[in-house]
Records
---
Amino acid sequence: MANQPSATALLETSLPDLTLLSKGKVRDIYSTSDQSALLFVATDRISAYDVILNNGIPTKGQLLTSLSLFWFKKLAHIIPNHLITSNVSEMPPEVQKYADQLEGRTMLVKKAEVVQIEAIVRGYITGSAWAEYKKTQTVHGIPMPTGLVESQKLPEPIFTPSTKAVQGAHDENISPEQGSLALLLSTSLVSNHLVISILAAVQLLGQDLYNQISSSALQLYKTAAQYAESRGVILADTKFEFGLLPPSPAAPEKRQLILVDEVLTPDSSRYWPLKGYTPDKPQPSFDKQYVRDWLVASGFRKGLESGPEGKEGQGWTIDEAVVQGTRARYQEAVDLLTK
């Protein structure tokens, strides 16, 4: 059967003895008997333009998890992260019973309050940044040098934060100045409800935390980009997410900033092959741009999030050739970066 490979993708987790707290575009998040930890499970679901597609990419969850684990270890000297363990045998007993389903695609992580900004760092001008630059010679409101061409390396990486959107909505780009006024925290790692006003957030967190996030994100990007280039891969841009740990009894007024969620995967980053890189045109990629391009070519546009024209409500199903091509690109990126 032509669609057999997609049938093996894990689109839904089934852990009946655990409480499902959140079902995101890719990850399912569960509570455990460890009150200070959460279970992250990376499924094989894939989204494009904030739309979850009907079929997934087989083994994508394992590939994303393995790459996140690689980067968490490699970048730990810059900032701590939320990883406790990826070894199912070291997780609570109620988790271990689902080892067959979870092996290779799950992480036990520290609970944290997520800072409601996606910390986007761009080292090359492409995508929405290129579209804006052509109109205004700015990127997220930041003036850029004249004469840049598509896919060109920027003189220095730039921090272009985005507000975090609820599922199904689009993230909103904001300027760095606006970002310092949008450090809104959710009540937990899995909630999207805003519990404090912008003014209260600024009073509580202030410019210092924003500066800490932006400087950490830039340092993470520069370190990762330098390593990736040594492996024949360009890291064009990426998205980091940060959280705050609960205060400790020894320092009740201080909360540690940590790196959370996934990190530097093809879902959250734009990876290009270094070989053949030529500015002034779009680049081939190791990320889900391949899926985005297919979706647009298949007729996707704003207003058709629920399915093709005339088939609204049925969702979007990726062609099998695109499934296979996407998986191959993800696998190649992991191999180049980690082996």
---
Amino acid sequence: MYLKDTPPFTPNNSDEAIMEAEDELYEEDVIEVIDFDPSNAHEDSSDDEGNCTRVEEGIRNVIDEKAVIEISDSDDDDASPINVNAYSRDAEGNKPTRDDASCIFQQHKGSVFCCHLEPKVGNLAVTGAEDDMAFVWKTNSGEIILNCTGHKDSVTCVQFSHDGTYVATGDMSGVVKVWKISSKSQVWETSVGDLTWLKWHHGANVLLGGTISGEVYMWRIPVGDWKLLPGHGSKTDYGLILPDGKRAAVGYEDGSIKIFDMKAATVVHHIPQDQAHTGPITDMDCHSDNNLLISGGVDGHAVVLKTQTGKVGYV
């Protein structure tokens, strides 16, 4: 008697028949059958170890090959071809990892702190690192075209000028250097004390640099003429040149923001501490209309203000 809605058993579907079907199903997946004689298990331990090693290596190779074949047999006609050489084992020889990088630059001998791409074509990159070095190199090959030597501390600021003619490098000791790409030579250098950031003007060869003391230097490159945007004793953490190219916004460690007239080197607006942020400012950006500016800080706030009036619109 069958339970309700339960189909009847299939005739001749004994356990023996099921086992035979399973044997047929998995027979093609068997790589090799090895007869094992327990009586000879300890006769030659060195030979056993060698055989085990060879068997383990064979199994790993089969697994690796099968994984690549399964990926290659995908039904996706648009899939990129699999590069078997792209798979490599980690330090312990375990998981296969894949590296699709077209270029890896490995010339630094310490942590890399900063990087920037040449803005016009993007075929060059500049990197600065803990090893007191900056390099300009080709992004398609990693070939070094310029060694930026002579820094006295970790290089923490690097940036190409707006048209890629120059590249500026700065270190933690305050040494700032400017290099000309076409001649692969240094064209200017200065020292300002502890440096926190560098920023090129987006339409002229003018370079701004912020310091721990709070002053912001503005240099005309390569002649070196300079102006000083005054601070108020608090470290400057971030600087931004507004889209009009005539004003700059500077954020400070105490949470205050200043809008400067760059030509006159005077403060247009000063948004004091606690009115916007209560801690260091980490980032800023300005809308193309030159009016709305947004800033972010470690206090967890994003503040929107109007650069024309200095009034905070949203916190």
---
Amino acid sequence: MFRGLVFSALLVTSAFAGSVLYLLPCAVVLLPLGAVDTFRSCVQLCRWWWFSFAGACVEYVGGTRYELTGDDVPRSFGDDRCVLVVSNHHCRLDWLFLWPVACRHGRAGALHVMLKDSLKHVPLFGWAMQAFGFSFLGRVDRASDVATIRERLRAAQTAGPAYALLFPEGTDLSPSNLKKARAYGLTLDPPRRWNHVLVPKGAGLAAAIEALGDDLDAIYDVTIRYDTTSGERPDEKAMCLRGVFPRKVRVHVAREPRDKLPRAMRVGDPAATKLWLLEKWALKEAAVESRGEELKPKVSDPDGTGKSFYHFVLGSGVAYATAKGLWASGGLRAAAAASCVAWSGLALFGGLDDVEMAIAKKKRAEK
């Protein structure tokens, strides 16, 4: 239980420091001046710090170990600038457990996530994700979601390297979702009778490929599995309230260079993209079924840069200084309260991400 409380306190306090005390003040100072590029540089710094710290918390507070197999991305493909990371969606916390992988790939500051729009206005975390320019998808109007992916990824691409994470299944492997996916899988030709993955969708990945165009270096095909004490899927309540973390996260990365993708897929064809995904997901099903026996070779030095402890100490120091400052300074508490009110008010304009995009479009039109 203590471990879960420490983990939650560190993430909440650091998210408060990042979103309330750093990101919004940067936006208030820079965006009215039209300094969009400078603001995005500030955002990239915060993104690098926070995802590196959150990933380090999973390992140092949660005690979770990582085993990486497949392509050794940092050593062999470190020049990849724009990549799409597609993964099976085993549980609601897959994105959290993939952050340490992004850190090992040296791309914590370039991480871009596609997620439900219901998370956009969640205090602290949702506010930060707005500033990070993530793609919020309603999952009701497909055309609108595809347009959002194109717009946000193009903006991320112009700001620097892009490491975009998406889950083509669209939802996690809950019993009800698995039941629906099995029923749908039986209607396909040939039928898919899967027990460990859901049937992937192609539209989102196709839009992302189209958005990045020739700048796309590769797709990282990721298969994630967990070793847990109970044998059940990781759960946020178990982690945060009881301190129950996975013992080990097993991640297999297969790099698919853009020029090796099917021609129709390279131009963003949804049908071709879905066929490609179905092939890859059949391999994931077999790999998870066999407990990853064929997922080789193991990546040497899975700790990557070896800087996780540094990020943990740095982030913990920021969290401690934030808590101490709020306790001791009435002025800081007043400023933080004003920042929270401003974040809430931004919802009237769609959120900070929409405000930033509007300013960027106006600036481009004036050139």
